[in-house]
Structure formats: C-alpha cells, structure tokens
Design brief:
The protein is an alpha/beta fold and about 230 residues long. The chain is globular and about 55 Å long. The chain has seven helices and twelve strands. It has one domain: Spore Coat Polysaccharide Biosynthesis Protein SpsA, Chain A (Alpha-Beta Complex). The strands form three sheets. Strands 1, 4, 5, 6, 7, 10, 11 and 12 form an eight-stranded mixed beta sheet that branches. It has helices spanning about 35-40, 60-65, 85-90, 115-125, 170-180, 190-195, 215-230; strands spanning about 5-10, 25-30, 30, 45-55, 75-80, 100-105, 130-135, 140-145, 150-155, 160-165, 165-170, 205. β2 (about 25-30) and β3 form a beta hairpin.
Length: about 230
Amino acid sequence: MDSFAILIPAAGKSVRFGGVRGKLLEPLAGEPVLRHSVRAFLSRTDVSAIIIAAPPDDVSILQDALGPLASDSRIKFCRGGDNRAQSVRNALWNVPTDIAWVAVHDAARPLVSQQVIDRTFAAAREHGAAVPAMPVALTIKRASGPLPARVEQTVPRHSLWAMQTPQAMRRDALRAAFESCPLPLDQVTDDAQLIELAGGDVWLVEGEERNLKITTPMDLHLAELILSDARPA
C-alpha cells in the first residue's frame, strides 16, 4: 500500500490563543498539544514521513515539545512560511519523491482519531483527494463588517460543511496546484482549496466533533474534558 507523508504547518503565532508559550506548547493531559497531534500519525504503518514546518528559531523548542517522539527518524523539520499555505508548500517541497501521497494536518488538532484518518486516507486513494468535514450547525448570515452591520443574506446551511484535517491528496497534484495557484498564498486558507482551484475533485468524509482545533483557551479546556472522559474510570 502506498504510504503518506504528513505535512504539519507549525509556524503560526497563536495570536488568538494569547499567552507567551503558544498553543502548541500548552499542556494537554500532561503533554504538549503538538505531541498529541504528531503521535496520532507515528502510530501508523502507512506513514513514512512527518515534516513539520516551523520558524527556524523555534525548531529546538518544538523538538523538546515532542519529547521521546523526536527520536523517530520519520520526523523532519523545515522552514515555515509567512502564512499557512507557504508553510505547507515548504513542507511539501521536502517530501521524498518516492512518497506518492501527502496529508496536511493542523498542528493544533491533537484529538484526531484513527477512524478519521482511516476514512480520509481511503477516500483519497479512491478519489484523489479527501477531507473530513462536519455539517455547519449554526445559522450563517452574510454582512459587510465590522459590526454592527446590516444583514445582507441568510446563507442556506444544508449544503455547508466545516473542514477539518488531515486533508489528503496526491503529492504531485498538490505540487501542481501550488504552481498554478491563481491566488496570493495568504488568501488560501484551506489545503484542498488548492486542488479545487486547479480543477481537481475533492471528496468529503465524515469528521468528528472531538477533532477540534485549539484556537482559544476554551478549546484547550474542552480538549482536556474530552480526554478526561475517555480515560478509564
């Protein structure tokens, strides 16, 4: 079976999280958030490489955060970019040429399950690109901010889906999509969007509520609660 390289953009500033350490270093069940995110993929036999895009000055800090996982030869670091898409591109360009598939995973999604990874990888192999998704539960209204602002439209939500990661696709397809991208990379907020812009198909698979992204301290608290509920009594 063809293996995957996991691309982990970890060069963000954690502005919305606040604090001085950054969310990837925050403890979750006694271990840094980043360690949980990486461990989910190191346990898999179909993962041949994990490439973490990080600021050069932070590589040693993130290596320390990985603890004993850092000794796994599959883990490599590369220079992060000024935005997410640039970091993903830098990591992609460091993928060995004998690896046909890549999956981009948010460094701050520490609770991704093996079931979500299985579904995403299987759908990518079948269709070329796949992303886990959750139905949008909130009512969405379009308005020109900042608030207060007049409502322009209520957007029907029955066909709206919120994206999660990992987002999996062929390595060559993602490289080609970067090379032909018509948008500035700071306007690309989703990895599968690149495949769409290049005219490729992206398939959605079932995500999970627990596969949350740590953006605020409240998210970290929720992740802690989820893990505590999952521990044996």
